[in-house]
Amino acid sequence: MFQQGVNMKLKFKTSGLILLAAATAAAQVASHAPTVFTQKPASADSRLAPMTPTAKPIANINGTVLTEADLVREEYAIFPYARQHNGIPKEMEPDIRQGAMRMLVFEELVYQEALRRKMTVTPARLQQAEAEFRKTFANPEDFNAFMQSEFHGSQQLLDEKIRRSLLIDTLLKTEIQSKSTVSPAEARAFYDQNPDRFRIPEAYIFQTITVLVPDKATAGQVAEARQRAAKELPEARAAKTNDEFGLLAEKISDDDYRVMEGQHKSTPVDQLPPQVVSVFKKMKVGDVSDVVQIGQAFTILRLNAHSPAGKQRYDEVKAQVLKQLEQRKTNQLRAALDQRLRQGAKIEEP
Q1: Model pTM score
Q2: What gap in Å lies between CA 166 and CA 25, rounded to an integer?
């Protein structure tokens, strides 16, 4: 699941913008500590990695050196909660570091390819991007603090970083975004050719009032639980609405569903006990069952909705299908571009 999240993040985020955004986030958190480089407090959980990036080289891409500081920024872009956690949780660190390294290398290769193609950024576009970036700061003081921390106050260095990110973005749009569009005809064909993906199982929405039987209960305790449930049955059947039944469930039910007024979301029949399905088949929406024993519990059921098995209509899933197919095509195009750029490239990693 984490790798899928990394792939999503890789879609069109560019290195320069990530670096700037990460630093901006820090500037907005505390104007006196505007960079992403903060030491781990002494009291921080020992499981968390220290936030101590350096200029140590971690990769050489066709002669361009990437540093530990670059990698940490990428890691924080993947896991933006690192600041609140005083670092990246130890168990997540290997996956995040691997994903961040692949992003760094990929984006540097994309940038070098943009230069090889002699792509340019107009002064107007550069100016607009800088203006938009400045708006991400709470005030001019935070922006100036960031400039001093990241670029030693150099406008030229900031322009180079923004220009780099814009070039990467332009090439990615050309090679990926513009080619990842899925036509309505393609989406419809996918829907027609994959009917099982859009089948809807028979399902029920219901409420419960449950009396639990203690573990290792005696026969007398089981009988007592059954009697208690039977005592509540008339009042449960007198409830005219979901809300009335829910208030009763909240008051007398023993299980965790009481805090949700006994509400159970739509549940497919294959996820329900057979005796419950059997009871539901004899009920109409709004009916309340007799007391039903389910394992170590006696339960009163209220049927709120029944959805028969069927298939989602195309107009119901069209937007979802288009989005999924476009994401799949995007991932394929990105992987192909990554492979193509790596061919012939000189990549040195320790």
Answers
A1: 0.63
A2: 20
Which tokens is 118 given?
Answer: 């002699």
CATH of domain 202-308: 3.10.50.40
Domain residue ranges of the chain, discontinuous segments joined by +:
2-175, 202-308
Q: Is-same-fold flag (2-175; 202-308)?
A: no
The full DSSP string for 184-224 is HHHHHHHHHH-GGGGEE--EEEEEEEEEEPPTT--HHHHHH
Interatomic CA distance for residues 202 and 231, integer angstroms: 32
Show the tokens assigned to 334. Answer: 């990105």
Is residue 331 classed exposed, middle or buried when 0-12, 13-18 and 19+ CB atoms within 10 A define those classes? middle
Say how far apart CA 263 and CA 315 lie, in whole Å.
29
As a whole number of angstroms, the distance between CA 31 and CA 145 comes to 7
SS3 label, residue 153 = coil
Per DSSP, 281 falls in state: T
List, in sequence order, every beta strand (DSSP E) within the chain. Answer: 57-61, 64-67, 199-200, 203-212, 263-268, 288-293, 297-307, 310-311, 347-348
Class at the top of the CATH hierarchy for domain 2-175: mainly alpha
DSSP secondary structure string for all residues of 32-63 = TS-SS--PPPTTS-TTBPP----S-EEEEETT
The tens place of each residue's pLDDT in the chain, 350 residues long, gives 333 333 333 333 334 443 444 333 333 322 222 222 222 322 223 223 334 456 789 999 999 999 998 898 899 888 888 777 778 888 899 999 999 999 999 999 999 999 999 999 999 999 999 999 999 999 999 999 999 988 899 999 999 999 999 999 999 999 999 999 999 999 999 999 999 999 999 999 999 999 999 888 899 999 999 999 999 999 999 999 999 999 999 999 999 999 999 999 999 999 999 999 999 999 999 999 999 999 889 999 999 999 999 999 999 999 999 999 999 999 999 999 999 999 989 999 87
Selection from 77, 79, 100 nearest residue 24 by Cα: 77
Query: DSSP assignment of 55-79, as one string?
Result: S-EEEEETTEEEEHHHHHHHHHHH-
Query: What tokens does 180 get?
Result: 């990842």
